[in-house]
Design goal:
Blueprint lengths: L10 E10 L5 H12 L2 E6 L5 E7 L1 H13 L5 E10 L8 E3 L1
Parallel strand pairs: 2-5
Antiparallel strand pairs: 1-3, 1-4, 2-3
Helix pairs in contact: 1-2
Length: 98
């Protein structure tokens, strides 16, 4: 059985996106994009109209997701995106909508 080495480069980033990001398929599109890229984590709507997500993957996967999240799906208008690196032991198995 193969084990991941602690040196395996895995990043976890918490993201908050504001703008017209609810009611436009943002979460579903984010899940689809994460599956294409191979990133893991989750995405959910907030009561204030923003969307937040935790993205986990290689540095390239995380960068690709952040780039996509800044644009979102057609119909979305992202006005701001903040991201913060998190240091967590948890390893997500997949990317899901909450």
């Amino acid at each position: 059985m193969r084990h991941s080495s602690p040196s395996t480069s895995l990043e976890t980033v918490f993201v908050r996106v504001t703008g017209k990001v609810q009611g436009v398929g943002y979460r579903l599109s984010t899940v689809r994009r994460a599956h294409l890229i191979g990133a893991r984590g989750w995405v959910r709507n907030n009561d204030d109209g923003s969307v937040e997500a935790t993205v986990q993957g290689t540095p390239d996967q995380v960068d690709a997701m952040l780039e996509w999240l800044r644009q979102g799906p057609p119909g979305a208008r992202v006005t701001d995106l903040t991201s913060e690196v998190q240091y967590v032991d948890r390893r997500f198995d997949r990317f899901e909508q909450r």
